[in-house]
Structure of Putative MFS family transporter:
Amino acid sequence: MQPITAQQPDGYLNKTPLFQFILLSCLFPLWGCAASLNDILITQFKSVFALSDFASALVQSAFYGGYFLIAIPASLVIRKASYKLAILMGLALYIVGCVLFYPASHMATYTMFLAAIFAIAIGLSFLETAANTYSSMIGRREHATLRLNISQTFYPVGALMGIVLGKYLVFQEGDSLHSQMAAMNPEQLHAFRLSMLEHTLEPYKYLVMVLVVVMVLFMFTRYPHCKPESNRTSLPSLSETFRYLATNRRFKRGIVAQFLYVGMQVAVWSFTIRLALNLGAVNERHASNFMIYSFICFFLGKFIANFLMARFRAEKVLIAYSVLGVLTLLYVMLVPDFTAVYAAVFVSCLFGPCWATIYANTLATVENKYTEVAGAFIVMAIVGAAFIPALQGLVSDHLGSMQLAFGVSLLCFVWVGCYFWGELRHNKLRRASGQLAQEAL
């Protein structure tokens, strides 16, 4: 008798194991929580360490730089062992990074905080490299993009929880930090800064407890290998894989699109709280509400996109999202009142389906035997979030206008829209040539 869940020769399964898929999808909010806490830290560090917009954005550079450096080693673990082992290693390293916030909060140096954030990113690189590809593989091939979009729908839940934890555990009641610190003498200022930095430890205490529970569940849950049969006997060398990927034009376009998309998303989120502080008389705790609204919009955008992509071609849905995104960011740039903050919130609706769709489309352009390393390269494209927010911060410092600096994100959205337009044209040509071939037969 054939087992209920059987692996196909290409590594995909004939049926998705529900419990394993749900547990795997629970990893997505875990890195969403860490990523959104960065937006809290940027605002806190900006005031406490008296940083420029560029320097405060280095939080994202440390975080996403870790993804870039570790994605290939993570893919080698998957290649030689399993997706499950890479996930367990990622969870363990994530826990270590959270624990490092304890000495960082007491040493009270910006460099030590960046080191702790980088350590968390190393763990998350293992998790994302494994979980994104695994989610697309753990079921029938034709549903790979939908499956990854469903898993990615869990991401904003974690991101929302990260902002809520930051709002109530890191930010405090009262006037904004800048206003409070302006009235203090040097001794009071030093004590106040130490107190504010100690608050940054609190969310990570709760994260460690959740991570330990998830890690235990993964240790005792059986998972399929989901590796193509050809991969088990004759793995291509890394140099051969690199040469293959370097000549794959659609794969390279997908990498660039992912680089710019992730950078744009993180840049908008990194500066939404700051935009609210600049345009309205609010404190950090109140301004963080706009990030809560952003992640609710992000979730709704994913949900709506899943519904639309079940009825229309994914590329058409994403082109429409991109056009609306460009117009919304143009409003953020040019309208000099508080409604620009609400526009920055709304644009999160339009981010929703981009990551998963670009990831699945790009992975589908490579042969099965190159899947693990190709997936790592797509995760490495997350390094866009190390560059684009820093660039937007630099533009903000240079122009003296945070609103105009959102033009950096606008240009990224233009490119993403062009990518999906190119994918739509490619698929139309492929279908047309397929029809001609059938008619010739």
User: Anything to note?
Assistant: The chain has one domain: 18-224+239-433. The two ends are 38 Å apart (CA to CA).
